[in-house]
């Protein structure tokens, strides 16, 4: 199987499994006020929600990478680098998805049921994920199969993107959630 197809598969897996964070607050429905009342900081609550999604996403990426190694003729080192880049990228995408819901939650204030329909945030998260998948597949094409260049052009941008998204979500958590009206 072509390495570029495997990279796009890993990146798509990343974006689809990260999209659940785009309704992390909205899923609480009318019970979201409990998050503001319990004696646990909202930063810690968000960290737990984000960490859980990252763990699920990483598990999916690891399984996808191992499957690709077993059933593909592509260079194993390149597949591992692609998997690591997808894992790093997933941290940023989960944070970005969570940020979408933090800024624009779709909360039914009068109900206690979880959000059940596809929200605008989920659609936007999936679109961002597809865009990331396209960008990182293009970066793979630029690397032309060289292991060192592939590592550089995949891991460095993924790390910068993820660090930026983690930094941004930490700032937004301090300001946006406190301002959320209940």
Word description of this protein:
The structure is a single chain. The protein has six helices and no strands. It is an all-alpha fold and about 180 residues long. Helix 1 packs antiparallel against helix 5 (about 120-145), helix 3 (about 40-70) runs antiparallel to helix 4 and helix 5 (about 120-145) runs antiparallel to helix 6 (about 145-180). The mean pLDDT is about 80.
Tag the structure with descriptive keywords:
6 helices; mainly alpha; 182 residues; single chain; elongated
Brief summary of the model shown:
With 182 residues, this protein is an all-alpha fold. Helix content is 75%, strand content 0%.
Could you tell me the mean pLDDT?
A: 80
What level of helicity do the residues show? over 70%
Radius of gyration, whole Å: 18 Å
Annotation field: number of helices:
6
Secondary-structure element order, N to C: HHHHHH
N- to C-terminal distance: 52 Å
* Quantity of strands, as a count: 0
Content-based structural category: mainly alpha
Which word captures the global form? elongated
Strand content: under 5%
Query: What does the largest sheet look like?
Result: none
Regions with pLDDT < 50 over 5+ consecutive residues? none
List the helices and strands and how they pair.
Elements: H1 3-18, H2 33-37, H3 42-71, H4 76-103, H5 120-143, H6 147-179
């Amino acid at each position: 199987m072509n390495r570029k197809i495997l990279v796009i598969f890993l990146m798509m897996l990343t974006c689809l499994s990260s999209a659940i964070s785009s309704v992390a607050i909205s899923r609480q429905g009318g019970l979201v006020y409990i998050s503001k009342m319990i004696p646990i900081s909202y930063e810690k609550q968000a960290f737990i929600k984000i960490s859980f999604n990252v763990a699920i996403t990483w598990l999916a990426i690891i399984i996808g990478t191992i499957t690709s190694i077993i059933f593909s003729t592509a260079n194993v080192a390149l597949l591992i680098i692609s998997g690591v880049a997808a894992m790093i990228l997933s941290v940023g995408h989960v944070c970005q998805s969570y940020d979408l819901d933090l800024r624009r939650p779709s909360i039914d204030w009068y109900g206690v049921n979880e959000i059940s329909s596809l929200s605008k945030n989920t659609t936007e998260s999936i679109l961002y994920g597809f865009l990331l998948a396209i960008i990182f597949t293009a970066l793979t094409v630029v690397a032309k199969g060289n292991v060192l260049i592939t590592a550089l052009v995949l891991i460095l941008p993924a790390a910068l993107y993820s660090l930026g998204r983690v930094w941004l979500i930490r700032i937004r958590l301090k300001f946006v959630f406190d301002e959320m009206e209940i």
